Amino acid sequence: MIQNLQSATEAEQDLHIAKHVEPEKLPAMIQPIMSLAQSDAERDMLLLSLLTAAGSCMPNLYFRYGLTGKKYYPNLQCFIVGSAACGKGIANLALELVSKVHEAAPLVIAGDSSYPGFYKQLERQNGRGYIHESEGSVITDVWRTSVANYNTALRKAAEHEPITRNRANNNSCIACPQLSVLLTGTFSQYKALVPSIENGYFSRLLTLIVNDQQAFSSRYVEPANGSNSVMTIAAQQLFDLCQALYKCRPIEFSLTSEQRARLGQHLETAYPALMQVLGVNFHSVVLRMAVHIERIAMVLSALRMADKLSVISHQYSDFHCSDVDYQTAEMIGNKLILHIAAAYRMIKGAEEVSVPKVQALDQRQMLLSLLPEEFESKTLIAEAASQGIPQSTVMRWCSQWIDHGLLLRMAYGHYKKIA
User: Fold this and answer.
1) Which residues, at least 6 apart from 116, have a Cβ–Cβ distance to it below 8 Å?
2) Which of 160, 194, 208, 311 is paired with 217 by a 20 to 30 Å CA distance?
């Protein structure tokens, strides 16, 4: 019966990310940086870039996931895919954000590295690093040489698995690599990095696809509040935060029991709809999205600590995610998995275009499936907000569900699903 409903309009299924994040709900440190973006596409690229870069230099933070309680750290690996002149250059502000941290203790690793060079630098930095390249081909070109392909090392680092070297005169192991990666480039560069869906790096790499073309703008800013000033302040704030975290003992981050239940529900209901469309090979992407979402939530929550530096060392031994940061992280994950699905279709050869088109699933069906058998309006509105659906839109959908016999209004603001 739900198939008979008219699909949502493009406006209702807007696949931009930052458009659905109220600026004041982001950590104060990155709010001024986000204001430098001038389009929805730029805001998407900037937000993902900032979270990736910031997470690369946050020591002593981790969360546990899975039956074994494995530790995960705030390290994201991302590729922003877009055609020329789509504004990918704004992602380079992320490199400025970590500049002061890098000056104090080397962090950035060049993508144009041989495997021995990559390994030695990561080893010197105690397993911590950040690769930032505005042209994805920098890595794939060097990987063509026999001594430079560190694809396996990136895959292991994404899961914090040991990276080992065995040489006649030197055996060594980076026991727990904590490596963040931010690449931008064209889809041909992306496909050179991830040539097939069976490649293990595909499910470990967050993908953001930008179809927008950047309109010409003079983009002049006043020196007093221009990007240099904004980034200098933010870089200092991030440096101070990282210094405070470095001096304290390890801090365990965790979702609340309600947030964990919500995340599990997404894995059990919403995301499998993608596997029905794309096949079982997409399963690993679905499973790893839970880790990506929790990493994003951890970075957002940690950035808020910048306002509480004086109490970090003696107050925090563990901390929980706020509902605001969880909802933001969940919404980002819900959007990004559709971007990854677009890349998946392209890699499989189902689409022959220069930039994959991101397609939304039937959000109404996904949303309804996530709701309990009986629920109140506030539950419906909160679940919709986590997927970037406006309150006015979801209440209209609710009326349509009732009209089509999918819901029964038990009382004002109280509903029950009809099997």
Assistant:
1) 147
2) 208
Angle, vertex CA 15, rays to CA 10 and CA 17, nearest 5: 140
Q: Is the pLDDT of residue 197 over 60?
A: yes
- Identity of the amino acid at 321: C
How far is 303 from 239, CA to CA, in rounded Å? 11
C-alpha span between 353 and 187 (Å, rounded): 9
Q: Which CATH architecture has domain 21-347?
A: 3-Layer(aba) Sandwich (3.40)
Tokens of 283: 């399963």
Kind and range of the H or E run holding 104: helix 99-104
At residue 220, does pLDDT exceed 60? no
Q: How many Å apart are CA 78 and CA 190, to the nearest integer?
A: 11
Helices (H), 87-193: 93-97, 99-104, 115-124, 137-143, 151-158, 187-193
pLDDT at 418 (0 to 100) = 83
| Chain-centroid distance, C-alpha 354 | 23
Tell whether pTM > 0.90.
no
Beta strands in 197-317 (DSSP E): 206-210, 251-254
Percent above pLDDT 90 for the chain: 43
The one-letter amino acid code at 182 reads L
- Our CA dihedral for 349, 351, 353, 359, rounded to 10 degrees, sits at -130
What pLDDT sits at residue 188? 86
Mean pLDDT of 79-93: 86
Q: Which of 79, 37, 330, 57 is CA-nearest to residue 194?
A: 79
**What would the mean pLDDT of 331-340 be, rounded to a whole number?**
89
Helix (H, G, I), strand (E, B) or coil at 112: coil
Provide the CB-side half-sphere exposure for 400 (13 A, CA): 17
